[in-house]
Amino acid sequence: MPQLIDPRKLVDSDKLSAEHLATELNAGSTRVFNLDRLHRGVLKADVDPEEHLFRHSELHRVIFIKQALRDSAYQTERRDRIGTKLYFAFNEANAFEGGKSIFIGDPGFDSALAFQTGFERGDEPSNYIHDRDIISILDSLPSLDPFLMKDRLLAEGIDPDERYFRITAEEFLVVREHVMKKFRPIIEFAFAGLDKTSADAHLRSLVQKLWDAKDMDALKPIVKAMELDAQTAPAAFQSWKGVIYYDYRMDRLAQGIKSFAGWLGQDAVPLDIVPAASRKILDEIRDAIRALLRRRWGGVRERLQDYNSAYEKLFVDQQSPGPFIAFLSDAPDVFAELGDGLSRLDHSVEVWRSVLDRYGNSRLKFEPLHNMLSLLYRILE
Questions:
Q1: Cα separation of 102 and 2, whole Å?
Q2: 3-state secondary structure string, 219-249?
Q3: What is the CA radius of gyration of the chain?
Q4: Dihedral angle, C-alpha 259, 260, 265, 269, nearest 10 °
Q5: Nearest alpha-carbon partner for 152 in 168, 137, 133
Q6: Could you give the dihedral angle defined by the CA atoms of residues 216, 219, 222 and 224, in that order, rounded to the nearest 10 degrees?
């Protein structure tokens, strides 16, 4: 009988078994950016090095993972408490045989990066700054959604090959147009004093400026109408963009969550006969996962309902701007909370699907079921 694992005492990912590690890191979720795998596809396509994500080639061996910061003595100032961990595989040919990981911001981060990849300040200054900027951008996001990564990189003039992102150019434009459509009412509200001809002429330009969130002089009427501080307004607008995107993704994620919840209620029982004590452990882990799933999903839905209510109250019902003004002032925190919650939910669904696909059955024997439930608990907890 395999050793039972208390989900509350799960070890860090770099100490998990190879199967656990492969399942966690290879699932196509928004919590993991498997740059190592994606870059191999870029190399296979013989893409011009100028279109590679990083200029220091060894950085492409890294896998980026979003994870909650717990008991972090060196990142207590982070308001979102979501960190970005870089995973370095021991074996370049097989990233899932084990490796080391370190959070961006750790006092030893630069030394670890230099040791693992050879990337250090002594490199060509422009290349070093370029690559550190990308690392900082990825760290600034609460999740590693392809749309958010690509958008933030493009905003900084960085346009790598599209194979690094699991989103087509067409899909990106669809989301972009959806976000811009949501932006239009705030411009019409803030520039209500303009005549219609002048307002229409400025609308597209101002929507683009709101998307870029850089030209605060042009957006001054919006900043004033929403009672924002000019220094914090760019972060508020960028975060609002992210909240609109997460709201857009909800429908796509909802069906997967529903199927996952249904499986937990019906098929998360061992296919083989196991002792009562082992079955009890499985039941406890499964019930804990169901509770976490309800809490995470409920928290995301509540946040988005509050946002949509505030938006509709101002821009649809034309009532008090107070709730939406309050939302914008809190947008960075809302963005971070939604990113953490949705990426955990997305990751758990993708891990669940990948394991069932691997075994070709919705019912599993005790050992793989126990391993998967332990990992799912760790992701959602």
A1: 30
A2: CHHHHHHCCCCCCCHHHHHHHHHHHHHHHHH
A3: 23
A4: 120
A5: 137
A6: 50
Residues paired with residue 67 on neighbouring β-strands, in sequence order: 83
Give how far Cα 225 sits from Cα of 111, 155, 190, 234, Å.
46, 25, 6, 15
DSSP track, 267-284: T-S-SS---HHHHHHHHH
Q: For tokens 């608990």, what's the residue?
A: 377
The number of residues in the chain equals: 381
How many beta carbons lie within 10 A of that of residue 267, not counting itself?
14
* Gap between the Cα atoms of 369 and 350, Å rounded: 15
Cross-strand pairs, 87: 63, 101
Chain-centre distance of CA 178, in angstroms? 19
Other beta carbons less than 10 A from residue 199's beta carbon? 15
Residues of the chain with pLDDT under 50: 1-16
Q: Is 156 helix (H, G, I), strand (E, B) or coil?
A: coil
The strand order across the sheet containing 63-68 reads 32-33, 63-68, 82-91, 94-103
pLDDT confidence of residue 60:
95
Q: Which long-range contacts (CB under 8 A, 24 or more apart) does 175-181 make?
A: 175/147, 175/245, 175/248, 176/151, 176/211, 178/244, 178/248, 179/211, 179/241, 179/244, 179/245, 179/248, 180/207, 180/208, 180/211
* pLDDT at residue number 82: 85
Give the predicted TM-score (pTM) of the model: 0.88
DSSP 358: H
